[in-house]
Amino acid sequence: MQSTINRTQLFRASCLSLLVTSLSFGIRAGIMGDLGTQFHLDATQLGLITATAFWGFPIAVVIGGIVVDIIGMKRLLVLAFLFHLTGILLTIFAGGFWTLFISTLTIGIANGTVEAACNPLVTTLYPESKTTKLNHFHLWFPGGIFIGTLIVLLFGKYNLSWQIQVGTMLIPTLIYGYLFSKLEFPVTERVSSGVSMGGMYKALASPLFIFMFVCMCGTAITELYTEQWVPVLLKNIGNPILIVTATSGIMVLGRGLAKPVLTKFPPQVLLLISATIAAIGLYLLYTGTGNVFVDAIVFGIGVCYFWPTMLGFVNTNLPKTGAIGLNLMGGAGMFAVSLYTIYMGKYIDSIVAGKLPGGTTLDNAVTAAPGSALEAAYTQAKAGAGIDVLHLTSYIPIGLVIAFIGLVVYMRGRKATPIQEVAAV
Q1: What pTM does this model have?
Q2: Which CATH number fits domain 7-413: 3.40.50.1000, 1.10.10.60, 1.20.1250.20, 1.10.760.10?
Q3: Which of 110-114, 158-162, 320-324, 401-405 has the highest mean pLDDT?
Q4: How far apart are CA 351 and CA 368, in angstroms?
Q5: Measured between alpha carbons, how far is residue 72 from residues 6, 67, 68, 80, 121 in Å?
């Protein structure tokens, strides 16, 4: 690595850029109810707005993965800064469905561009401990959601508007933009190791990569869809924002402890354990038989290692897939979440409509007067729909358990032994 490269400062700036990405998730999760109320949006419309962030992400992450080796990681991160700045300002001054749609899409593009550059940057900076450092990097995703939900709680207590809550993201955005503009960047690991573009694309045809690509869709839906929609799905159980805060807090702790965990369990075994615990956590959440915060912590433990360990496993065992491999994985996950979000938005509306008093339309319920009997009926119907959605979603981690059992068996029989994680510097 070039002597002028300061990997510690680059890693810290990367974490700050991911913090902005995750703040957008945490704050949006906290203000979705306010957006629905202020702009008279139903679950289908809220689902479309939320989904645009997941559309923008895969578009940006896949395109970024293709061009990052050509234009360099620094230029890509300057673009991320510009998209973040534009999206945040558009959100603050949004006036309805379409402006929220466009602003959320712009932020999604920014989020994908950050990961398109930072995932290969982290694996390039720390080739000796890829999965560990990816977990340390990605702890700032639940970390940002944790901070974002606290912002929503604190600002809500003092009746500060959702626009001010969104505006807090400008501070870390401006800081990371400044830091990246001053730092020197290395070339990607694929370029430095001499792997050709043709070799990289050929490696993507590996059956193992295709298998992990499909599994990434399931792990992303289990983690991100549930976190994004818990404030809507569990609105009848205590304070749903606190549930998101509890889940995110335990994920920060878990990813921070990735080094000793990965020393004890190889990535494929950790993924199997995670899927099992996530399935149990979702079961506990939708049955509501215990303490909801304990249930949320169990779920948080389950999904904690999904995203970074999936990326680390692919880059360690299929290193020739390079930046495009990392970014296709991330793009697959976010695109799957976007499709699932749209489908579930319509599914929620259909369930809610069926639970409303006879002769009442969903449009009437959405615009019901505060404090009216119709508003109460609408709230109760949404609560029941949320439980149904969590129940349906719980089948995804059950399927992942079966898939990861197969992965563990396959890796035990594989002749080539993957590179072991070593202590990170």
Answers
A1: 0.78
A2: 1.20.1250.20
A3: 401-405
A4: 18
A5: 16, 8, 5, 13, 10
